[in-house]
Specification:
disordered N terminus; two-stranded parallel ribbon; 479 residues
Length: 479
């Protein structure tokens, strides 16, 4: 009899506790400034157990009616090479460097000039100050020309020309390096957009799935088969997925703007990234191949070649500066006629002369020594910069190979994760519908399924971008 009474009291207590937890459960709190609000019942003890959650419709970040431009990675790279101002500027600088070579080489070629002079003067007067072209002044008119030709400066001009040629080659390599920088930036922006679009699809599918769960839970709550706690959890999961969708929409819009900037098109241009219709990407190189890839990168990286050309140019320039101590030998000639002149003063009415000149700098205030030393110091600095970049390239190649290997392996793992979570979600949904599990189990399964879908998307595009980064590290990035 005593045991029967204890069982009766325990049953009554549990029943009262269940009714209290079902009826008096407050609604999930929401911040007043939330973008998405759930329409729920009041939080007092008299609130109805049947609650519904529906988000306020917000204007999307990207108007679905706005036209978008479909673009592949190949098309994006082609447009970037054509339109990006950095590439145009680097090419113009390379052309300008070629003109500097022509300017320096002109010192080895004949210099010819012509002059026509007409003068009205007080005949026979003398120049008292200023330039001394003639000691006496006469009213006359004449025309003539002069020619000068460098015979030898013992290699000074030749080394200057060699310096400019090496600088021109360095600028050409810099232009190639700029093109590869822009190509890598284009690929990064393209795959970022492609990844954001895929994540947006995942977010939309998650919102639809959790909306179905919320609708089901609402119906079960109205039928008193589920508690308000289940409805609030389902509504919270739906709000979380809607926040994820908003973030994904923002990521798509931002990635499109970044791609438009690289392509030098208006920032409000909306692009839709489309994968190239090509075969599956190749497998990554093995980690043991890093030394061979690094050797290829050391020979092909255009930025490293530019620094090496600059170091060689500084070496030639230092030699040219030191050669200024040697003499310069040149030939000159002059001739002309003076058809208008006072009688007896310009006899005959033509003139001509020629000669050879040797000039030797005896003392320049140590200017030549300072210029030569400056050039040698710049040469050493350029060599150290090239050495530093060479070490950086070796590191980047090693990291790029490891990143490609890791990204490739993540694809299989992420795909397996996605399949397993999809199966777990299906089982959790079935158990929840049959009343064999709580909303917490279903919510956890939904969360894992979403995370797996996101991981699968990230793994694929991370690998594609890792391959392009490896091509950049080895100096072989091309459209």
């Amino acid at each position: 009899m005593r045991n029967w009474l204890l069982s009766l009291l325990l049953t009554a207590s549990l029943s009262a506790f269940a009714q209290t937890s079902t009826v008096d459960l407050p609604a999930a709190p929401l911040p007043s400034s939330a973008s998405l609000k759930l329409s729920t019942a009041g939080a007092n003890s008299g609130s109805s157990p049947s609650q519904t959650a529906s988000p306020n419709q917000q204007q999307p970040l990207i108007d679905p009616a706005t036209s978008t431009i479909s673009i592949t990675r190949t098309d994006a790279e082609r447009l970037a090479l054509k339109n990006n101002p950095r590439i145009t500027a680097s090419r113009l600088l390379a052309l300008a460097a070629g003109q500097v070579t022509r300017e320096t080489r002109s010192g080895e070629l004949p210099q010819i000039s012509a002059a026509i002079t007409a003068e009205k003067a007080e005949d026979g007067s003398r120049i008292g100050a200023g330039a001394l072209t003639d000691s006496r002044l006469y009213t006359h008119a004449g025309t003539g020309g002069s020619l000068s030709q460098l015979i030898t400066d013992f290699g000074h001009t030749r080394d200057l020309v060699a310096t400019n040629k090496l600088q021109q080659k360095a600028q050409d390599q810099t232009a190639i390096a700029t093109e590869q920088d822009v190509l890598l930036a284009t690929d990064q922006a393209f795959y970022r957009l492609l990844n954001a679009q895929s994540l947006l699809d995942v977010a939309k599918a998650t919102v639809a799935a959790r909306g179905d769960v919320q609708s089901l839970t609402s119906a079960l709550t109205k039928s008193a088969l589920k508690s308000d706690l289940d409805l609030n959890v389902a509504a919270a999961d739906l709000s979380q997925s809607q926040l994820m969708q908003l973030d994904a929409e923002n990521a798509v819009a931002s990635a499109s703007a970044a791609l438009a900037a690289v392509l030098a098109t208006p920032a409000d241009t909306l692009y839709h990234a489309v994968e190239d219709p090509e075969d599956a990407p190749p497998p990554p190189p093995s980690p043991d191949s890093s030394p061979s890839i690094n050797a290829s990168a050391q020979a092909l990286r255009p930025d490293l070649q530019a620094l090496r050309f600059n170091a060689a140019a500084d070496q030639k320039f230092a030699t040219a500066q030191q050669l200024q101590h040697l003499p310069t030998i040149s030939a000159s000639a002059i001739g002309g006629i003076t058809p208008v002149s006072p009688d007896g003063d310009f006899v005959p009415n033509w003139y001509a002369a020629g000669g050879v000149n040797l000039s030797l700098p005896l003392f320049t205030g140590f200017r030549i020594d300072a210029q030569a030393q400056e050039a040698r110091l710049r040469q050493k600095a350029a060599e150290k910069q090239a050495q530093d970049l060479s070490d950086t390239i070796a590191r980047d190649v090693r990291i790029a190979v490891l990143n490609a290997q890791t990204a490739f392996r993540r694809i299989a793992v992420a795909d397996q994760f996605r399949q397993l979570t999809a199966q777990a979600l299906a089982l959790a949904q079935t158990r929840y519908k049959l009343g064999l599990s709580s909303i917490v189990e279903l919510s956890q399964a939904q969360l894992q399924s979403t995370q797996a879908a996101v991981a699968a998307v990230n793994a694929r595009y991370d690998y594609l971008l890792a391959l392009r980064s490896l091509d950049y590290a080895r100096g072989q990035l091309a459209p």
